[in-house]
Amino acid sequence: MTVAFWCVLIACVLPIMTAWVCGYFRGKQFGNVDNKHPRAQYAQLEGAGARAYAAQQNAWEALPVFTAAVVIAHLAGVDPAKSAIAAEVFITARILYPIFYIANKDMLRSLVFIVGLGACIALFVMAA
Q1: What pLDDT is attached to residue 80?
Q2: Residue 55 neighbours by CB under 8 Å, 6+ apart
């Protein structure tokens, strides 16, 4: 399995890890985690908890774009070393993204979002 494919696996785990962070904030704000109506509880989160939930949603939204970029680059025969660099840049950006989001560092969050998106675009361009 290539490094880029391993990065897809990591990208699949990131939203789940962010969900665990959301669980912490749900417990902190509400005193418990409502597993029967989690979306209703998420909707009531405030502050860092609300930002953690937004970061989780964004991680799910970024996943198909990254996955498609990696698969298309692979199918197009892009050099695995080059695709690995772009994939690793994406993963680094996506690890930093929820950290900056939860910490309310909007400019840094936007910067790493653009870096991650740029890594996906780079994969598509390499495949062209």
Answers
A1: 97
A2: 18, 97, 98, 101, 102
Report the alpha-carbon distance of residue 44 to residue 6 in Å, rounded. Answer: 35
52 and 102 in contact (C-beta within 8 Å)?
A: yes
CA neighbor of 109 nearest in space, from 99, 118, 117, 119: 99
Positive or negative torsion for Cα 88, 89, 91, 95: positive
In angstroms, rounded to a whole number, what is the distance separating the alpha carbons of residues 59 and 71?
A: 18
Count of residues in the chain: 128
Q: What's residue 82's pLDDT?
A: 97
Residues of the chain with pLDDT under 50: none
- Is 109 in contact with 39 (CB distance < 8 Å)? no
Whether 79 contacts 108, CB under 8 Å? no
pTM of the model: 0.94
**What pLDDT was estimated at residue 85?**
98
